[in-house]
Structures are given as structure tokens and as C-alpha cells.
Amino acid sequence: xxxxxxxxxxxxxxxxxxxxxxxxxxxxxxxxxxxxxxxxxxxxxxxxxxxxxxxxxxxxxxxxxxxxxxxxxxxxxxxxxxxxxxxxxxxxxxxxxxxxxxxxxxxxxxxxxxxxxxxxxxxxxxxxxxxxxxxxxxxxxxxxxxxxxxxxxxxxxxxxxxxxxxxxxxxxxxxxxxxxxxxxxxxxxxxxxxxxxxxxxxxxxxxxxxxxxxxxxxxxxxxxxxxxxxxxxxxxxxxxxxxxxxxxxxxxxxxxxxxxxxxxxxxxxxxxxxxxxxxxxxxxxxxxxxxxxxxxxxxxxxxxxxxxxxxxxxxxxxxxxxxxxxxxxxxxxxxxxxxxxxxxxxxxxxxxxxxxxxxxxxxxxxxxxxxxxxxxxxxxxxxxxxxxxxxxxxxxxxxxxxxxxxxxxxxxxxxxxxxxxxxxxxxxxxxxxxxxxxxxxxxxxxxxxxxxxxxxxxxxxxxxxxxxxxxxxxxxxxxxxxxxxxxxxxxxxxxxxxxxxxxxxxxxxxxxxxxxxxxxxxxxxxxxxxxxxxxxxxxxxxxxxxxxxxxxxxxxxxxxx
Length: 561
Known about the structure:
Helices cover 29% and strands 24% of the residues. It has helices at 3-18, 62-74, 117-128, 177-195, 197-200, 220-237, 253-265, 300-314, 349-369, 403-411, 429-435, 501-507, 516-526, and strands spanning 29-43, 50-53, 79-83, 104-106, 112-114, 131-137, 204-207, 242-248, 280-286, 290-292, 295-297, 325-331, 373-378, 396-397, 400-401, 417-423, 442-449, 455-462, 472-479, 488-494, 531-534, 536-538, 541-548, 553-558. Keywords: Glycosidase, Hydrolase, Signal.
């Protein structure tokens, strides 16, 4: 897409966001939140530590390396990254919804030629920054593709084009399944030799992406065969590798039913045995924002209903019911690189507050369905060398964090022991699933105890409609504290005035070429800074108050490290 089009898109998004300027001040809504630190209600697995992107080569570029470092710091060695296009043929030059590594070519006589140079550089970059691969085995190398003659191999898709324009020669089955299996075997063996068995055992291996959707130009049974041969190649090189899938579009429908049946009781295409090794299951879930009455309206209900359908489906077969589950893409909508007024939520606090509210409900759904939820992967990274705040679904722009990234930094401070907590303004799960948050705003909470004994309380103020509204006047009460309550607590905020580079950029006139001083100001504006809250005690209860604006997210931490 020409640069001028990107700039117009960014300006349009800024105008839309400006249209949601605060109306006349309204009286704050009183909200009571109560936490019982003496009552544990279960585990809160750190499912937020998974990320991904279509464009694998961005990882090795300047802003990609910087962002990976930030992600790795969230939970060092326990953050995972999934990328499309890791086996594509090409010179490694990234483009929208494209990437390549040139790992596989053939001689004129049809003999395989393996070259791990580019893909090694990508994985090296992950590991050096505390991030591990959620290794997607795909897509089809050009020399192996059965695409009809005349089919282009690399697509020419641009933002604004029809989405199906991404489908080209990479989306077809292999000419030889034996060569496909051998490629996967050789790649896995190389990874074990380069990184060590213990390291590669910690990775996730899955085959392809959304083979029930646009990404696969063959019947489902052909994908099951592709999957079997790939898993056999991985396990032949590393019998203890963690393998799973299929990362279906949505809950997967009949495609997922067929896959689950195949891996449990079908005949394995590669080995002739019954079933296919399956260590985890993966599906995708997306929301559906729209543009109504001059503002963005989010579709959290659509997102949550798809999560629930996926949970029901992957636990329906007893042999798989306790397997770890990863929602391999979980986002407000489906295309990170696609523009449009309905996607104008991405730069500011609409995205960050949606993230807090949606993750909270996904945790709750997993507990309700007794799902062994291991990961919820946000398909959002960065788009290198694009205009500032261009409106793509990403975590940072030109190396500067967006508010949504700071919500993941808040998540990283939560413990894994969940405490009893309730808010009298939290929208019930079933209502959020069926109606979304269209009436009163959702002011909700999650409370945890960290491994070092601190109490961390997350609070969010969310509404589906990106319009102004009064703040929440929150009274936070904590019971069951061990020993004397501290005199103060640490408060972290992500809202219109805190940890928000987008607001700072608009305030400085939305420059498309910030100078060094302006860049430093934007970086400073993106950073989270703590403040102190006074704690009052009496009658065995510790209380504090805070004002949380619409679309705000906050974390209150009691105790010291």
C-alpha cells in the first residue's frame, strides 16, 4: 500500500478516536470491590504469555527485536511466539501477511536442499530475548507445492484488498508426503543439535494454520494426512517433543470433529497405527467489532461464545478431555493488518480495557468447563517501518509500546493463586456472552496471591461502546489479611492519562516523523509508573479508594517484594 494511504488511514483513526471526546463531567459511579485474602478459589494459570504474527521476519528487525525483549521480560523463558510462513520459499523480505525463510529448495534432479540460515536467525532472536517458539510447521515450500500451473507462489495482498487474495501457491498439499515428513524431521533434528534436547522439549509444535478456512486448498482428510506426516517427522527426531493442534479457525465445526476423531481412533496416515500423538489442542476465537453511530462498538460476546464452543468441542472426547488447551489466536477481530473504521479501537484504551475484560471471562469459562487452559495467544506484534499509530492490531508502534502491551505487564504481576473477590458492578459471565457489555459498564476484578506473598488485585472499567462515560469511584475492601495490613499499596494504571503513548502523540500534534526529543517523550509516556494508595484499617478490614476512568485498567499490589 502506498505510504500516503497509510497516513490517511492513521489520520482517520485519530479523528474517530477524537470523536469520542469526553462529554460534560458526570457523577462518578460508586463501585464496591471486596477481596477475601484468606480464601483461595483455585489457580489462575498465566495464559496471557503467548503472542504471534503473520510476518516471521519482523522478529529480526530493529523494532521487532525491541518488542520481543519486552515480551520476554514478562515471564522470562515462559513466553511463547507463534508465526506463520516459517517454511515459505523466498529471500526473507517481509511484507503484509507474508514471510519466508527459504529452508527448502530442490536441485534440478529433485533432491532436497536444506538451508536453516534465516529460520535460525529468527529462533535465535526469540531465545536471546527470553521467548520460546510455538513452532508452526508451515507453509508449503514452492518446490514441494501441488499448486496448479500458473498459480503465483507469493501473494500480492495489501491492506484493503479482499482477504482471500492471500491464498496462493503456499497453501497447497505437498507433491510428496515423504519429502514433507523428511523436511520436518531434518528441521527438528537440526533444532535439537543447535539448541539442545532440553530446550526443544519446551517448545510447542503444531501444523499449519486454520486448515478449515482459507489457508488450506484441499479437503480436511488431506490435512489430517499432512498433520500425521509432520508429527511423525517431529517425533522421529525428538520422541519427547510436545505436539498438537490443529489451530482451527474458530471452534472448528465438522473439521475439528473429524480431527479429534482421527487423532484418537483413526488410522494414522504416516505410521498405519491407530491415532496420532496429541499433547495439546488448539483452536482460535475472535470478536467482531462494528462501527455504529459514529463510534466503534466491540463484539466481546462473539469472542466469548466462540471460546466456549471451542472448550466444549475439545473436551467432548474423554481421551482428550484433560489435555492442555491453547487458544492459538484470541483477538477482538480477525485480521491484524486490515484497516477500517471498526478497527479504530487499536491504538488506545479501548483495546487495553477489552483485553483485561476478555481475558477475565476466558479464565472464568475455562474454570466453568473444567478446561486445562494453558495459553491464550494474542495475534498481535508490530509492523516494521509503518506510519506511527497506523491502526494495525499491534503491541507497539515504531518501537513504542501501546496501552495494550501495558495490560500484559499488569497480568505479569498477578499471582497464580486466585483469591475470592467480587465487584458489585461486574457484568455476569452469561450476560457478557449473550449480550456483551451494552448496558451498564463492566467494572470487574481478579485478585491473586503471588509466590512471594503479595496480594495483587486487577480492576478494569470496560464497555463495548467507545464513548465517554463517568469514572468508577471504587472502594476496595480486603479481608483475611495475614498479620497487620500495610499502610499503603502500590497502584499501577493504564488509561487515558497513564501509560498511554497514543494520547501523548495526539497531544503533540500527531507527528509522522517525531524528532529524537519527541520520540523520547513518547517512550516516557508509554511507561507505567507506580503511585501509592493509602490503606485504612479497622475491624479486620483494610480499605482503599481509587477513581478508575472509563476504559481504565489498574493493578493494586499490597506487600513488598
